[in-house]
């Protein structure tokens, strides 16, 4: 129920850098004024697969305990410092801007769950959040004793978990999962203090503010409480970070006594556990990592009598997926299984079926709601009085609530209109909506966070009973003027009136342009920053959505530098929500673009399918097409386009730079997945076997030959003038080995133009993992470094 780390707000406007004249740019090589970069040693090594043999003289780097590797990393860090030394003043300026936008402290609006209000706060001067709660009603019993013993009374807040304390003790903190027991007396959480994602299970007694001595288990992923609040189920990882086993522990027992409930022996599948919203059942899913190769088995456990064991709901069927929730004796199931009646289901997305608990088998499911051809169902949430559905219609994202219960004896499938849905209004079609915690099954209010590239995140409470809504909170951004008009309460009333007026119009049921009605009641920067979506024609004629963002005042068409973001894997969204740190680029005239290439999230599930496995080249070509569009349409200067990728997104950037070395002037590759072929050929590496679903298994010759075509490490262009690159890695990264970044930099320097490749730098954090470890101030410092690199290399005259 704990929200992710609160996003920090960032910078103020400073004097803008002037644009160099376009005539200063050419295609000549770049020269650095630094000492020569480090030269990595070569150790002969050959690999063979399917009759193909290749040399990899940097294979030795995969042994991170080799002292020569640590020495090389330290040399590269020193070279990066030297390369960036001339930007120190700029880094400090950027950092100051970002800090000036930060409010002294950040607090989330409280969210009621049972008798408590839960919330997070980053106090003034602190890096990380603290999880708090306070009574929502007058305390009695053991709850009252907590506050009487501390000298407090009704409404006094209690600290549940302080990230800062853990970071000060260990130097690193990553809290992954938090679950409060049904009686609100215990907090179970998993914490990583090294960066290797070996999360340790901790259970805190909130009655006496102490951590229980047992169990102490490492490698824990998901958690679920039984209703007795003393029985806890958890999943355990194997050596490859795959959750493969479900165990059950009793509070006070030794971890060695924990009972094994289920083991998944097939390395292609992971186990996940969750409680149903009402807490009456615990579901156990065995599924693949990717969303397009669903082969799910589902079991469930009676949470009120957990020792009765597992009951199987369905068997594994290729391509079929199930997600279960419970409501008053009925299981509601999201699935894409063949429908049980002669109903035309497109197979894109999911549909909703149901069955009674006492007859809970997939074969007994009855179709309940099957979306039409123009609509896809993706997810659901359930409350005592309402069902929330997450859909897309003609590419637009919709969220709606439906009153519960619904007559189970209705034998026909329901159309969406016959369910009398209330679609949650949004102020703009550029907005995205992210669910809040919403842990309280009895609640009638659905909390969500609404954001767009030009609107800071604001928390909205959608009252599903009255079908009204209110703003609970908006992210505070300092030192920048916003467009705010009128009284907030009046604004919401006007929004409601306009929504009701236009709700009969299907095309405007969830998107209302409030500007044309002259009423704005939240901070909105659309008058300062322009945001639009552009469709780009890819190599095969498919239209690729690309979001474009720039300052209305500082941007200069055809002269401005640009930064293209991409990811394109696992069916995941590319984050385009409000991000204050970007203002430091926007106010310097930069154009930011976000390419929703195939392989990531899209209008339907097929978008992922068309950019994974033997279709992965589509993702890369989509990214190249978006980059070329920015140049060909004159939106940016042709020599000032940079690219940014993170993790699997670096595959896009690296492959695109190999295919078109002159396309980008600079690139940032963070915790990069670049040595694709060699990593996938090594099943001993964490997550490799799970990634076969996404990228293909190179033990298969067809997949091997296809991956060999694009794998960035194998396709560096001999003698090419490569873009400047900032390659960031983490020494303790257990998802993408630190050696991938090191091998890439060493081979680029060895293979491409020596003058250009001297502007390729490797920066490695020696005490962090894949997801970093910095709090709000450290994140500002990292972004200042990244942006200084981009500005240095986009404004660098080529001579």
Structure in a nutshell:
By secondary structure, the chain is of the alpha+beta class. It is built from 15 helices and 39 strands.
Structural description of this entry:
- With 799 residues, the chain is α+β, with helices and mostly antiparallel strands.
- The protein is 20% helix and 29% strand.
- It contains 15 helices and 39 strands.
- The strands form 9 sheets. The chain has an 8-stranded mixed beta sheet, with helices on both faces. Strands 3, 4, 5, 6 and 7 form a 5-stranded antiparallel beta sheet that branches.
- Helix 2 (88-101) packs across helix 15 and helix 8 packs across helix 9.
- It is globular and about 75 Å long.
- The protein starts with 45 loop residues before the first strand and ends in a 5-residue tail after the last helix.
- Residues 1-27, 142-154 and 484-520 have low confidence and may be disordered.
């Amino acid at each position: 129920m704990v929200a992710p780390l609160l996003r920090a707000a960032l910078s103020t406007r400073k004097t803008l850098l002037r644009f160099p004249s376009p005539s200063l740019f050419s295609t000549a090589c770049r020269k650095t004024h630094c000492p020569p970069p480090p030269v990595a040693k070569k150790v002969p090594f050959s690999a063979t697969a399917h009759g193909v043999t290749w040399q990899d003289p940097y294979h030795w780097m995969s042994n991170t305990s080799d002292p020569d590797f640590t020495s090389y990393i330290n040399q590269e860090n020193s070279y990066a410092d030297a390369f960036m030394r001339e930007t120190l003043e700029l880094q400090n300026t950027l950092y100051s801007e970002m800090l000036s936008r930060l409010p002294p402290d950040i607090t989330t609006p409280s969210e009621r769950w049972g008798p408590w209000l839960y919330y997070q706060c980053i106090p003034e001067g602190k890096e990380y959040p603290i999880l708090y709660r306070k009574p929502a009603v007058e305390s009695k019993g053991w709850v009252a004793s907590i506050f009487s013993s501390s000298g407090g009374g009704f409404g006094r807040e209690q600290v549940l978990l302080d990230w800062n304390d853990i970071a000060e003790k260990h130097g690193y903190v990553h809290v992954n999962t938090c679950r409060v027991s049904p009686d609100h007396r215990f907090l179970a959480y998993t914490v990583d203090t090294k960066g290797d994602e070996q999360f340790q299970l901790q259970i805190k007694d909130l009655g006496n503010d102490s951590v229980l001595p047992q169990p102490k288990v490492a490698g824990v992923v998901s958690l679920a409480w039984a209703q007795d609040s003393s029985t806890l189920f958890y999943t355990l990882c194997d050596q490859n970070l795959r959750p493969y086993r479900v165990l059950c522990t009793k509070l006070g027992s030794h971890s060695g006594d924990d009972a094994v409930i289920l083991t998944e022996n097939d390395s292609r599948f992971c186990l996940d556990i969750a409680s149903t919203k009402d807490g009456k059942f615990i579901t156990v899913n065995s599924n693949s990592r990717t969303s397009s190769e669903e082969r799910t088995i589902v079991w469930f456990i009676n949470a009120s009598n957990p020792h009765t064991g597992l009951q199987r709901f369905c068997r594994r069927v290729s391509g079929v997926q199930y997600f279960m929730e419970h409501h008053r004796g009925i299981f509601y199931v999201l699935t894409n299984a063949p429908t049980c009646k002669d109903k035309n289901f497109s197979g894109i997305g999911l549909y909703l079926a149901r069955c009674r608990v006492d007859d809970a088998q997939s074969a007994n499911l009855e179709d309940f709601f099957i979306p039409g051809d123009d609509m896809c169902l993706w997810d659901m949430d359930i409350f005592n009085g309402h069902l929330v559905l997450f859909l897309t219609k003609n590419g637009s994202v919709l969220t709606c609530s439906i009153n519960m219960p619904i007559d189970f004896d209705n034998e026909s499938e329901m159309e969406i209109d016959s369910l009398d849905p209330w679609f949650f209004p949004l102020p703009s079609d550029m907005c995205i909506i992210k669910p809040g915690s919403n842990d309280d099954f009895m609640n009638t209010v659905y909390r969500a966070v609404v954001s767009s590239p030009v609107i800071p995140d604001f928390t909205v409470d959608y009252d599903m009973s009255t079908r009204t809504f209110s703003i609970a909170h908006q992210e505070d951004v300092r030192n920048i003027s916003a467009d705010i008009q009128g009284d907030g309460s009046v604004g919401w009333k006007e929004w409601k009136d306009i929504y009701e007026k236009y709700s009969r119009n299907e095309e405007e049921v969830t998107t209302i342009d409030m500007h044309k009605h002259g009423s704005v009641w939240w901070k909105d920067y659309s008058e300062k920053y322009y945001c639009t979506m552009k469709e780009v024609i890819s190599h095969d004629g498919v239209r690729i959505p690309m979001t474009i963002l720039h300052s209305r005042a500082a941007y200069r068409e055809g002269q401005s530098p640009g930064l293209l973001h991409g990811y394109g894997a696992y069916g995941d969204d590319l984050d385009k929500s409000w991000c204050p740190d970007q203002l430091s680029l926007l106010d310097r005239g930069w154009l930011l673009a976000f390419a929703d290439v195939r392989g990531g999230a899209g209008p339907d599930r097929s978008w992922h399918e068309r950019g994974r496995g033997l279709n992965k080249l589509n993702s890369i070509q989509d990214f190249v097409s978006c980059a070329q569009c920015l140049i060909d349409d004159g939106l940016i200067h042709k020599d000032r386009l940079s690219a940014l990728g993170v993790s699997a997104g670096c595959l896009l950037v690296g492959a695109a730079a190999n295919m078109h070395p002159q396309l980008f002037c600079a690139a940032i590759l963070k915790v990069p997945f670049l040595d694709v072929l060699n990593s996938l050929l090594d099943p001993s590496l964490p997550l490799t076997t799970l990634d076969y679903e996404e990228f293909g298994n190179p033990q298969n010759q067809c997949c091997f030959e296809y991956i060999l075509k694009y794998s960035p490490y194998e396709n560096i262009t001999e003698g090419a003038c490569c873009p400047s690159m900032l390659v960031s890695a983490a020494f303790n990264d257990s998802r993408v080995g630190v050696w991938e970044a090191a091998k890439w930099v060493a081979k680029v320097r060895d293979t491409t133009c020596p003058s250009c490749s001297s502007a390729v730098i490797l920066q490695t954090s020696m005490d962090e993992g894949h997801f970093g470890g910095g709090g709000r101030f450290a994140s500002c410092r990292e972004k200042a470094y990244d942006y200084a690199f981009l500005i240095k290399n986009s404004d660098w005259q080529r001579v």
